[in-house]
């Protein structure tokens, strides 16, 4: 990733000259090639091996291998280590190679996308990777922008162009970019060829919303800002073509810089495993030291005298030196306590679990035809330990589809469906929709279920007509009629689009607009309204109005806005209606709908004239124009008559509230991090049931200075903890609070929610405040952060990750979530949408948020459970296997003589016992998937690390040690005087070895049978198969044939035959097996019987249910209890009204047809105004005023 | 174990048919609905319940105790006689031999020990020599051999494995058989006489055939083709040996070389530092008279093997055998103990289970 950094000195300033490759080459900027792969064919082997040996385990085995070559200490032949080691290296290498191959492929696919580059006077198709800094490229509609480019000109007037930045920040509304006036005339290729401007700008950085630079051209300087840049990852929309000059390419683009570094994610089990391996290593050294001391003593007491029969070299008879050598010998033979196969098996298991995720039908989304995908195969068990979920909103919780779902017109609600008994009916896919076939211009995708509204329309109810007329007139949507009757609306915010579409379907079709007219098709009749003024929306006003003159000559003001705002400005005559409507609004809001109130006013011609004059005057003043306009708007928007209210559903993804409720039951905290506005975010919070009315308090932190934020945070915390708990001594308290906040977390029963704003978050994330923020956030049940930048998302995740020892999961769908996804322990991407950035950066991807429930509660839980069981058993098995050598040491003069045959040592872990434990790790389930979802509390042991921790490890190694003790001493007791049935002597080393080995294999097989909860055919096959294979290999390796070929490698010839044909041997095996297994059985029986865990209970229940037969699954239904008032449904900013009235965004043809010469001179200065104002608006778009100057990061949306 | 086979559960999806219809147009990426991929493999799900665990304990108890008793009784029926002839004590007839042992002496030292068998030994009697504190299982000792050479491999004969050091070559010639194990071959000669009522010594015929494992004698150990005759073989005898390997048994030419049974028995190294190895078999003569009637016996030892230096002991053991091998009280006692413990545990667990029964509470599962 970071290759380019090495060969360029740190760039302070960037000089780019258009059409001058030679000049730009001097600076050796990164080209547009993207490389995420690690290896090529030649570097693969060395780099991969180097990486592999960096892993402690592999290095450890390499050292062992070297030790084994030294003959004085080699207690095992080299093949016992090298066979498994090579196996491990090969498997890992193959996996790395395939991963890298896919990375190569995806790089190649991106790099080979075509783009049109202006080279030597003509446009030529070039691959993306060949695009260079300084090139001028041409983009067409709906194309991805190939690099970060400076917009030079476009097909639209004034060098405007529209882009969608979903890949970057997740927002789907269109954004406007405008070229410099001087460059916007360069519309043909020859002019562009001659363009030789030089841009001097900031070095590459990851700030998506900021760009500073200067264009030097024809001895003039032009300032450049973000408004003139098209960033890689954006898509050009509604613009036929545009030209731009590449400023940043490839890895230096803001998109790639924002991707964050790819860090290798490790699971907590991994880390624990590494610690344990170190412990084991220490244990190994202890053992080695004990035995070495034993050897020293033995040599000086016995060995010295035993030299008659066992002479040694000089150094071997030196007791201390002999002890030293023995130490190493024992390190070698005891090394199997950390078996190499552990690491391979863990990898295999994770891979298997990943496949199960990929294969899960219940995580397959039929609509988008996407299955869940585990893109990282190393994190599965961590899915069973998640404590914090960070979720994006748009596209993750919501579908980003606004649907006109209900309305209240003149005191009458529409939208609910009732059956014949007058009961409300749940709207499902099967409910019949209203038939709009009477309307040839209707949108087929629009669905409405309440037929009474259409009746009202057909009855020509005046209020209803006026209602829809308002919706059709009062907006800033642009229509596009490609062919007759085929209308497409281009709305800046999806809610506006939804309203206009609703009006369209109910017979008030918005058909065309010019800067001064709006043409509707009202119930089949074309009606043209004269557009007199647009009183545009902004966040303070929270409403927008239009003033139109209808064909009859009446002047009317139509206004829509937040209910509180509208209700304040109503004519007294509407009071009664206001109360009814207000009730309806409550009802709508209670269902989580976004509401708007609609009102109109008839204007008197003369009054309007006077007002209009004032308006024209006000719009020309320089100072305080905004305020003056606001006053004027306020003046005319008085005495409105209420029409009704609309309710728009910000459609949640399927099953979101249920999923959130379920995850909450599993003690998973969900934080929503969204770039959206406070209102929208809170609204979704309510509709997802994350915010509820019965919560004790919802804290909204929206301070815009550090002190304010600190104050707000502190008071919120004091509120929760009760004043007595918080000392007033400033910062001292934060440390001790932090220390014992976990205690409080338990103690607090009341439910709180925290909503924090982007600006405030920027302050709250500073080191002084982050503790108090974190404490507060953890005390709250729900946390919503709104208007956050991608970087802040990552910072929040990082904060939790750093200070809470908890597993975090981030889920999102857009490129703005990438940094968060990469930061969290686990990143989940929502796939199936257009943008793939999030998915590409994620560890898991699936199509819908609700699958998260299954991913965590079923797959995660199983993975964790299996992995823990696997590890416990694995350590048990290897301790039982290895420590027999330790006990034997006391009887063989501490000479590092192995108990077993060397072949057995080689094969034990990789052949005899690998498959059963793998099968257990792959297939075991304690509780089936339905019950895992039914009882989310089953998830909690994972969060608390209960199934595998240091205590568990200690217990299972203890069991292993016990088993090894019995494995050695029972045969020892039996063998000391044993003879064969034919009287020949029998207590020889080889017989002893075969007996203990056989017992060991049987004991561990029985033990795994007891540890296992779920015996599938595969498990049976593997367990019985392994036993069979053990005996087959045993007899094969001790057969005459193989001895005849390699007499010195297989000295055990005939032992198995002689040994296993003895009854007494089998009696020893039976006895040892029973004695080894019974203690464990007693303990686990007592545990299950006396202290059953939830799992045990559910298992029991599951068993008894099964006997009764399948039962009806009782589904949890989430009831929304919220009755929150008003959420006004605007998600865009101010400014488009002016665009429309000026005609700037009309296509040439429409502008000319409008033919209003009086307007044109006025609007020439307008563009600058608009853009200037838009900047301000974006800063002040938050309801609490202009504070953005302190936080320039907030301007993403501008 | 409580068991039940988990039949393939109904798939919650009813969409099977409809989705297949759509699949015709766009290739559906829907994962296959197989029991394996959906992790619904039919499975046996055992649970530890009182109903399954407690009977298991009783069954183990009930099986183990009789086995233990059987083992104990048959072990007790085995007759065994053991005599230590190391010569540690001055009273021991072999004391002087043990004291004056020297590797260089050419005249063997002979001593004899008297002993009395209280009970007659029926059927075949096996004569063992036992060594204590002899570390035949020491790593360097164990590996100090060349199996290829012992298997008759010519090249290994001439060039023994390095593992045999320092008993690999002597006087420039390879040693056959090489290594510390072979070098330390037990070479005491034991002869047994029965003193009958007339005080005459009757030699008891000791059979030396069939004391080694068949596989060892016929597979693992083989002579190089010409060794039978070849006294001029270019090998040297092991340092401690008095005669070369092809003269180990002057009485039976087929019992010489690497396939000499005493040698084979020795070469099968013992697992523990105290061990016994079969020396001779005393075969039953007829059904009427016991093999070894009770009475007085003399054991005549040609004392060649020094063990005193490392505090070792040498014993001669006479033993009969039963269906489960030699005398071995350990197994019988162990079985009885384990069986009783299991039975006892079963009772204790039963009481605990009844007293503190917390089951039947699956209703209180929180959501």
Automatic annotation (TrEMBL), chain A:
Q: Which cofactor does it need?
A: Mg(2+)
Please list the residues that make up the active site. Answer: 392 (4-aspartylphosphate intermediate)
The terms describing its cellular component in GO are: plasma membrane; trans-Golgi network
EC primary class: translocase
Kindly report the protein's main subcellular placement as a broad class.
Answer: membrane
* Enzyme Commission code(s) on record: 7.6.2.1
- Which key words tag this protein in UniProt? ATP-binding, Magnesium, Membrane, Metal-binding, Nucleotide-binding, Translocase, Transmembrane, Transmembrane helix, Transport
Compartments annotated for it: namely: Endomembrane system; Membrane
One of the GO biological process terms: Golgi organization
Locate the P-type ATPase N-terminal domain: which residues? 16-82
PROSITE patterns for this protein? ATPASE_E1_E2
Q: Reaction(s) catalyzed by this protein? A: ATP + H2O + phospholipidSide 1 = ADP + phosphate + phospholipidSide 2
Quote the NCBIfam families the UniProt record gives. Answer: ATPase-Plipid, ATPase_P-type
Q: What is this protein called?
A: Phospholipid-transporting ATPase
Q: What species is this protein from? A: Dicentrarchus labrax (European seabass)
Source lineage: Eukaryota, Metazoa, Chordata, Craniata, Vertebrata
TrEMBL record, chain B:
Its keywords, alphabetically, are:
Cell membrane, Cytoplasmic vesicle, Disulfide bond, Glycoprotein, Golgi apparatus, Lipid transport, Membrane, Transmembrane, Transmembrane helix, Transport
Membrane protein topology class: Multi-pass membrane protein
Query: Which Pfam families does this UniProt record tie to the protein?
Result: CDC50
Which is a Gene Ontology cellular component entry for this protein?
Answer: Golgi apparatus
Which residue stretches belong to region Disordered?
1-27
Chain ranges passing through the membrane: 47-73, 330-352
Q: Which regions are flagged for Low complexity bias?
A: 15-24
Major site of localization recorded for this protein: membrane
Any one Gene Ontology BP term: phospholipid translocation
The keyword Heme is annotated on this UniProt entry: no
Localisation: Apical cell membrane; Cytoplasmic vesicle, Secretory vesicle membrane; Golgi apparatus; Membrane
Which protein family is named in the record?
Belongs to the CDC50/LEM3 family.
- Protein name per its UniProtKB record: Cell cycle control protein
């Amino acid at each position: 990733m970071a290759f380019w950094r090495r060969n360029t000195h740190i760039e302070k300033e960037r000089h780019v000259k258009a059409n001058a490759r030679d000049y730009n080459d001097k600076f050796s900027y990164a080209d547009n090639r993207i490389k995420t792969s690690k290896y090529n064919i030649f570097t693969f082997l060395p780099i991969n091996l180097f990486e592999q040996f960096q892993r402690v385990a592999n290095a450890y085995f390499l050292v062992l291998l070297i030790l084994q070559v030294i003959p004085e200490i080699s207690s095992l032949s080299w093949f016992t280590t090298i066979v498994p080691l090579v196996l491990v290296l090969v498997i890992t290498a193959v996996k790395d190679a395939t991963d890298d191959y896919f990375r190569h492929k995806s790089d190649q696919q991106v790099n080979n996308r075509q783009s049109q580059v202006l080279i030597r006077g003509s446009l030529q198709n070039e691959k993306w990777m060949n695009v260079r800094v300084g090139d001028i490229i041409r983009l067409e509609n709906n194309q991805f922008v190939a690099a970060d480019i400076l917009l030079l000109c476009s097909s639209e007037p004034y060098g405007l162009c529209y882009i969608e930045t979903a890949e970057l920040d997740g927002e789907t509304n269109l954004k406007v970019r405008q070229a410099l006036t001087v460059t916007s005339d360069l519309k043909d290729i020859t002019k562009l060829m001659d363009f030789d401007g030089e841009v001097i700008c900031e070095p590459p950085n990851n700030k998506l919303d900021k760009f500073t630079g200067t264009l030097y051209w024809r001895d003039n300087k032009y300032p450049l800002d973000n408004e003139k840049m098209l960033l890689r990852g954006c898509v050009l929309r509604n613009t036929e073509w545009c030209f731009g000059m590449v400023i940043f390419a490839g890895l230096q683009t803001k998109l790639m810089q924002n991707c964050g570094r790819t860090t290798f994610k490790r699971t907590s089990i991994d880390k624990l495993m590494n610690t344990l391996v170190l412990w084991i290593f220490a244990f190994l050294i202890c053992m080695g030291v004990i035995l070495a001391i034993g050897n020293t003593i033995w040599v000086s007491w016995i060995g010295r005298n035993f030299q008659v029969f066992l002479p040694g070299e000089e150094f071997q008879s030196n007791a201390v030196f002999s002890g030293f050598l023995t130490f190493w010998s024992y390190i070698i033979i005891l090394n199997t306590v950390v078996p190499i196969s552990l690491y391979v098996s863990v990898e295999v298991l994770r891979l298997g679990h990943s496949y199960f995720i990929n294969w899960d039908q219940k995580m397959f989304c039929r609509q988008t035809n996407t299955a869940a995908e585990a893109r990282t195969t190393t994190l599965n068990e961590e899915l069973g330990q998640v404590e914090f979920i960070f979720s994006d909103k748009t596209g993750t919780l919501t579908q980003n589809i606004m649907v006109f779902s209900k309305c209240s017109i003149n005191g009458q609600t529409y939208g609910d469906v009732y059956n014949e008994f007058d009961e409300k009916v749940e709207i499902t896919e099967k409910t019949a929709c209203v038939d709009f076939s009477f309307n040839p211009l209707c949108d087929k995708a629009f669905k409405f279920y309440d037929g009474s509204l259409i009746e009202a329309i057909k009855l020509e109810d005046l209020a209803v007509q006026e209602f829809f007329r308002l919706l059709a007139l009062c907006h800033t949507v642009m229509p596009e009629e490609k062919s007759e009757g085929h209308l497409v609306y281009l709305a800046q915010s999806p809610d506006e689009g939804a309203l206009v579409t609703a009006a369209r379907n109910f017979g008030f079709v918005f058909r065309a607009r010019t800067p001064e007219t709006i043409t509707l098709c009202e119930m089949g009749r074309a009606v043209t309204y004269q557009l007199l003024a647009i009183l545009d929306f902004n966040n303070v006003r929270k409403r927008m109005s239009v003033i139109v003159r209808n064909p009859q000559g009446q002047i009317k003001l139509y206004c829509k806005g937040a209910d509180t705002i509208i209700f304040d400005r109503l004519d007294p005559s509407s009071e009664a209606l206001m109360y009814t409507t207000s009730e309806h609004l409550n009802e709508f809001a209670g269902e989580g709908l976004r509401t708007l109130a609609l009102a109109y006013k008839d204007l008197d011609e003369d009054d309007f004239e006077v007002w209009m004059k004032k308006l024209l005057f006000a719009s020309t003043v320089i100072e305080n124009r905004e305020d003056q306009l606001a006053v004027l708007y306020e003046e005319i928007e008085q005495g409105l008559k209420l029409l009704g209210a609309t309710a728009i559903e910000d459609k949640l993804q399927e099953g979101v509230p249920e999923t959130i409720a379920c995850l909450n039951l599993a003690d998973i905290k969900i934080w929503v991090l969204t770039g959206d506005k406070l209102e929208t975010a809170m609204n979704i919070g309510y509709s997802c049931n994350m915010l509820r009315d019965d919560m004790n308090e919802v804290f909204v932190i929206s301070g815009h200075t550090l002190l304010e934020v600190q104050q707000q945070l502190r008071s919120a915390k004091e509120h929760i903890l009760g004043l007595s708990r918080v000392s007033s001594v400033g910062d001292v308290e934060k440390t001790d609070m932090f220390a014992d906040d976990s205690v409080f977390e338990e103690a607090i029963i009341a439910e709180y929610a925290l909503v924090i704003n982007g600006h405030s978050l920027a302050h709250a994330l500073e080191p002084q405040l982050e503790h108090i923020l974190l404490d507060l956030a953890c005390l709250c049940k729900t946390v919503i952060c709104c208007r956050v930048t991608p970087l802040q998302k990552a910072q929040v995740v990082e904060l939790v990750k750093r200070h809470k020892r908890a597993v975090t999961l981030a889920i999102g769908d857009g490129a703005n979530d990438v940094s968060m996804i990469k930061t969290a322990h686990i990143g989940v991407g929502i796939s199936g949408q257009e943008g793939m950035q999030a998915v590409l950066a994620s560890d898991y991807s699936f199509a819908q948020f609700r699958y998260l429930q299954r991913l965590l509660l079923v797959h995660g839980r199983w993975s964790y459970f299996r992995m823990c069981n696997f590890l416990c058993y694995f350590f048990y098995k290897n301790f039982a296997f290895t420590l027999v050598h330790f006990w034997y040491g006391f009887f063989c003069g501490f000479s590092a003589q192995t108990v077993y045959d060397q072949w057995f040592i080689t094969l034990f872990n990789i052949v005899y016992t690998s498959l059963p434990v793998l099968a257990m790790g792959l297939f075991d389930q304690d509780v089936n998937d339905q019950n895992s979802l039914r009882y989310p509390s089953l998830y909690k042991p994972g969060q608390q690390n209960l199934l595998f921790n240091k205590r568990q490890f200690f217990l299972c190694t203890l069991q292993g040690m016990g088993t090894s003790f019995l494995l050695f001493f029972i045969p020892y007791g039996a063998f000391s005087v044993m003879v064969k049935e034919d009287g020949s002597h029998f207590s020889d080393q080889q017989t002893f070895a075969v007996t203990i080995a056989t017992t060991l294999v049987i004991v561990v097989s029985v033990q795994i049978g007891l540890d296992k909860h779920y015996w599938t055919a595969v498990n049976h096959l593997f367990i019985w198969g392994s036993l069979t294979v053990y005996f087959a290999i045993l007899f094969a390796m001790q057969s005459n044939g193989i001895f005849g070929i390699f007499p010195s490698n297989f000295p055990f010839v005939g032992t198995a035959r002689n040994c296993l044909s003895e009854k007494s041997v089998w009696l020893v095996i039976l006895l040892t097996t029973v004695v080894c297994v019974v203690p464990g059985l007693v303990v686990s029986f007592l545990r299950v019987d006396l202290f059953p865990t939830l799992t045990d209970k559910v298992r029991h229940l599951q068993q008894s249910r099964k006997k009764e037969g399948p039962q009806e699954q009782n589904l949890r239904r989430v009831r929304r209890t919220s009755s929150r008032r008003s959420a006004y449904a605007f998600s865009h900013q101010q400014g488009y009204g002016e665009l429309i009235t000026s005609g700037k965004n009309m296509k040439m043809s429409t502008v000319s047809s409008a033919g209003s010469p009086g307007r044109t001179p006025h609007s020439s200065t307008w563009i600058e105004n608009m853009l200037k104002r838009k900047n301000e608006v974006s800063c002040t778009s938050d309801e609490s005023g202009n504070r953005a100057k302190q936080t320039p990061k907030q301007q993403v949306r501008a | 174990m409580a068991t039940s086979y988990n039949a393939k559960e109904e798939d919650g999806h009813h969409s099977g048919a409809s989705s297949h219809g759509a699949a015709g147009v766009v290739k559906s990426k829907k994962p296959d609905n197989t029991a394996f991929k959906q992790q619904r493999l039919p499975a046996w799900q055992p649970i530890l319940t009182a109903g399954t665990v407690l009977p298991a304990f009783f069954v183990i108890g009930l099986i183990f105790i009789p086995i233990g008793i059987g083992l104990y009784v048959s072990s007790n029926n085995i007759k065994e006689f053991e005599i230590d002839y190391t010569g540690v004590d001055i009273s021991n007839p072999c004391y002087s031999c043990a004291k004056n042992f020297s590797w260089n002496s050419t005249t063997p030292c002979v001593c004899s020990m008297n002993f009395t068998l209280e009970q007659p030994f029926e059927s075949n009697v096996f004569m063992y020599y036992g060594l204590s504190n002899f570390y035949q299982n020491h790593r360097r000792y164990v590996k100090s051999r060349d199996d290829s050479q012992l298997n008759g491999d010519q090249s290994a004969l001439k060039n023994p494995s390095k593992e045999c050091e320092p008993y690999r070559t002597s006087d420039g010639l390879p040693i056959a058989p090489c290594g510390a194990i072979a070098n330390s071959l037990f070479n005491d000669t034991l002869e047994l006489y029965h003193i009958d009522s007339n005080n005459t010594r009757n030699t008891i015929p000791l059979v030396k055939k069939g004391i080694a494992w068949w596989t060892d004698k016929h597979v693992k150990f083989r002579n190089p083709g010409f060794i039978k005759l070849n006294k001029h073989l270019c090998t040297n005898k092991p340092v401690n040996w008095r005669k070369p390997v092809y003269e180990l048994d002057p009485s039976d030419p087929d019992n010489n070389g690497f396939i000499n049974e005493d040698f084979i028995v020795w070469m099968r190294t013992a697992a523990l530092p105290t061990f016994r190895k079969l020396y001779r078999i005393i075969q039953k003569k007829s059904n009427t008279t016991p093999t070894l009637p009770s009475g007085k016996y003399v054991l005549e030892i040609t004392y060649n093997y020094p063990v005193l230096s490392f505090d070792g002991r040498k014993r001669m053991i006479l033993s009969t055998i039963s269906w489960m091998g030699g005398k071995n009280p350990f197994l019988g006692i162990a079985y009885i103990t384990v069986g009783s413990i299991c039975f006892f545990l079963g009772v204790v667990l039963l009481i605990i289970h009844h007293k503190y029964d917390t089951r039947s509470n699956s209703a209180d599962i929180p959501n």
